[in-house]
Amino acid sequence: MQSIGHEWTINEMGKEQEKDQKKSAIQDDILLATLQLFAEKGYFNTSLTDIQERSGLKSTGAIYQHYKTKQLIAAALYNKILDSLSISIDDIRRRNKKPVDQLREIVGLFFSLTDQAPEIMRLLLVLQIREFLPEEKPLLETAALQKIYKILQAGIRTGEVRAIDHQLAYAQFFGIIFQTIRLILAGMLEKQAEAYQSETWTAAWGAIAKK
Amino acid sequence: MQSIGHEWTINEMGKEQEKDQKKSAIQDDILLATLQLFAEKGYFNTSLTDIQERSGLKSTGAIYQHYKTKQLIAAALYNKILDSLSISIDDIRRRNKKPVDQLREIVGLFFSLTDQAPEIMRLLLVLQIREFLPEEKPLLETAALQKIYKILQAGIRTGEVRAIDHQLAYAQFFGIIFQTIRLILAGMLEKQAEAYQSETWTAAWGAIAKK
DNA sequence: GTCTATACGCCGATAGAC
DNA sequence: GTCTATCGGCGTATAGAC
């Protein structure tokens, strides 16, 4: 992975000045290095020296040109990923009418991220954000996740999803999805995520679909 | 919670000397304090001073009478919980013949632990053990989990569970269970765990049962 | 054998040279 | 405006007093 994910690379700089572009590029380097290191070792085992080395800077002091504290690096990374996720979900909701189709595409997004940007999935599913960013919203309360709740509620209204608490529906549906992805990230399954997507979708949808 | 869980309290000391009993009691105090603190703040946010205060000792130096390093405290705690879990699963396997009944009781155990010893479930489901105990086996490779795999494989052999990879069956079944419990631990569901057990069991078993 | 006092290293953060 | 050199604090671990 060369960028923080793909269509996921926030890159709408337009016609800014040279210097701003360079500055922004360095910030992306820092965030990318941080993402990799956090996925490998976690927040507390990653020092600013690690980040400086991995991002190709010449001194730790240089980092402070861009982020005032280590926590703020983590927060910037977390929010950048959540923004991308939120945007992708918006896009999926725009392109698909039925909740079932929206969910299928969201699952597809998570599985393809698992193959193409496993570090992002590790950060979302494995790291305990609350331990190092106690001020930030936990994943479940972020805009992105709220949108998923809305989809489930819509599914319940239309009768595609059986009538249970939407939080329980979330736990059942994404429990299957995320636990499977965790197994893949842990190296317990041989093939690429892609190979398990259809089977896992069927099981997850089956768990909440009205029969 | 006064002890590290119940039938879960390892307490087979018998007729040892007074002093050994006292020593062992202090060690239990240390582990209990550690469990609580880790569940609250995680490993890295918990200092030995925290542990000393919470466990009622008068100095951090006293801790070193019992455990040589902070990591070894964590390892002792982790292994104690895994041993209890393993023993409970053995017991469940002994008392139940059919995989479906064994699984139902295991689910019951996890839900009752969630109500009665949420710190233990937090440590098992939320904390990232690998970050602070890189030498220890990850949860999925421990004896306790291997026993659960065996139950799933047996279920596949007897035809109760549909014929899928037993790792996928694990992900689907326990994905639902554990994600629901995580939601409860996060305070996102109003009632006690107990209240969701039957509904969650039905969904989880439905996801892997042969129809 | 129990605690006090302290050593020591690591790391985040900064001040100041160039 | 960029890096070097360093500070200061925290937290683990220990040595030694009692």
State the gist of this model.
The structure is a homodimer of 211-residue chains. Chain A is mostly helical.
Write up this protein:
- 2 copies of one chain form a homodimer.
- With 211 residues, chain A is mostly helical.
- Chain A folds into 2 domains: 1-68, Homeodomain-like (Arc Repressor Mutant, subunit A, Orthogonal Bundle), CATH 1.10.10.60; 69-211, Tetracycline Repressor, domain 2, CATH 1.10.357.10.
- Chain A is built from 10 helices and no strands.
- In chain A, helix 9 (166-185) packs antiparallel against helix 10 (194-208).
- The longest helix of chain A is centred in the middle third of the chain and has 26 residues, at 70-95.
- Mean pLDDT of chain A is 91; it is low at 10-16.
- At the A-B interface, helix 9 and helix 10 of A face helix 9 and helix 10 of B.
- Chain A binds a DNA duplex (18 and 18 nucleotides) through residues 47-49, 57-62, 64-65, 68-70.
